[in-house]
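Q: For a teaching handout, I want to show students what a protein-ligand complex looks like in token form. Below are the inputs, and the small molecule is magnesium ion. Please produce the holo structure.
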Amino acid sequence: MHASDELARLSSLRNLRLLDTLPSESFDRITRLVASYFNLPIAAVSLTDVDRQWFKSKVGVEHDGIPRYKAPCAEVAETGRMLVIPDFEKDDHYADSTLGNAGIRFYAGAPLLTPDGHGLGALCVLGAEPRTITDDEMATLTDLAAMVMDQIELQHAVGRIDASSGLPNRFQLLNDLSDLQKNHGEQRIISLLDLAQTAQFDRLSRVMGPSYLDGLIRTVARILKAHVGDQSTPYHVGPTQFAFFAPETADPDTYSELLAKTLRDIEKHGDFHMSMTPSIGVMSFDPAEMLPEDVLRSLQSAVQDARDSDTGVGSFSFATDMRHRRNFRLLQDFPIALDADDQLFLVFQPRMDLATGEVEIAEALLRWNHPVLGPISPAEFIPIVEASTYARALSAWVIEEALRHITAWEALGLKFKLSINLSALNLEEHDFFERMMEKLKEHCVDPDRIELELTETAMMKETDRALDLLQRLTATGIRLAIDDFGTGYSSLAYMQKLPASVVKIDRSFIADMANGNRERVLVRSMINLSHSLGYRVVAEGVESAEASDLLQAMGCDEIQGFWLSRPMRGDALLDWLAHQMPRKLEVA
Ligand code: C2E
Ligand code: MG
Ligand code: MG
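A: Here is the structure, written as tokens, with magnesium ion included.
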């Protein structure tokens, strides 16, 4: 037997996941039948592993297997043909085998053949006396061996078919992907359809009942079957997920369009509920170069990206995958950073009053120095953390640190204010107000020393409860600023309802002023509009003296930006103030 044939044989044996499994009555029944039909004491379903014959089922033997060397069943598996040894003592090859030495005289074994012709082992019967075998007996043993194979195939299929859709499941896909690994240099396209996020699906299942979802699954299965064609089949890999290979005829360049069309078909015929967001992740890969588990993981990542795309179809890219992994790592490490005392710190960026030249407030900005990855920009880690359960802990940490600084400065004779960035999630915390008040009291800081920054988008999302919270906060004297003004979707009518007193014009508008007159007119209009609605206006990202002069001429109230100062540590801020505004620190 060729080494490669033996490898293929072993691989199909492994795929069936039969070795070392528990005894099963459905096999034992056949084994007992064989023993009694031949009127012999010993029978077994015996599988040929690398170096042993392992008995899936047995009658009349104690042990679970024998060595493969000189085992007749191994010969049956290798040749795929029936073997009869009428008398071991007269057989040159088997006389001194394990069985021969154990007093066995007769052996008959029929091969257990897979549909693609691999011999897994044998259904065998053994006796302590020499014996012959009739043609009828041979035919019966062969039939019974075929029944064993049916049983094997059936048991295998049961664990590989999804009951709700009748489609092969994730195990079958992993199995097929590992079969494909043999084909080197072949490029395949595989996609993953996700009907809804798990939470959406669970909610829907509760509201609409399971039969609605079963119907939906059947429709989707039908459309996907038509999509993949006769040569292939979709896989039902998770409650809401289907994987499928591209049809052989698919043109890789235009395949995404075909997918988008299939997705539209699914949405149209699937009686989709509003809250479901079906999307498809697609990837082209060389099966020989990727582990089956990695194929599935990459598809999961592509399907997440697909949710954010216009068509609902997203391709896997290694760059995004790297980003996902990095995001995951950052999220994992963030709670550690919260506890460590040398990873997170605040820097402060001062703001200057253009009318008086005074600096009495700075923005507190969070920094993370990761022990391995180095400094991580807040623009990178804050959105990740804010989408997680650590959002609350992040803000609590920043508030605590900011207040600690205010108190420490006060002790040095510096009366200073800080503005603190909040996220939309903070507005949903039921006890935010109480905790804020408690913290102010604990640090003996007056509320009017604090400004809270929220982006317009964050405020827009808000409910009556959030509005109520903002009103209670500002009633204490805390000021509210609209951050990154101009980048979100606020409506003026809505803004008017907010108890904000400061508008911070986003730095992109300030940077654009250098481009020309139109851009300058835009900034001037934003300032005028904000003023007429009663806001104080801060320009963010002022990087040059020209911009500062221009803003002053436009009537802007305050500036913040690199031109004045980069964000800096607390002690550096003190030095900076001492240098810039000696008067402020005279008392110190
Ligand atoms: P932001 O609130 O709009 O903060 C201003 C950002 O602009 C800061 O970036 C600041 O360093 C940067 N910046 C200031 N002046 C200039 C300038 O003249 N030119 C340019 N190009 N950039 C300037 P940073 O520190 O990287 O923070 C990015 C964002 O991360 C912040 O934007 C804010 O949304 C968020 N963030 C920072 N700290 C916190 C925090 O403690 N809590 C929350 N929720 N968000 C935070
Ligand atoms: Mg800010
Ligand atoms: Mg900003």
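A: Two things your students might notice: The radius of gyration is 37 Å. Residues 135-158 form the longest helix (24 residues).
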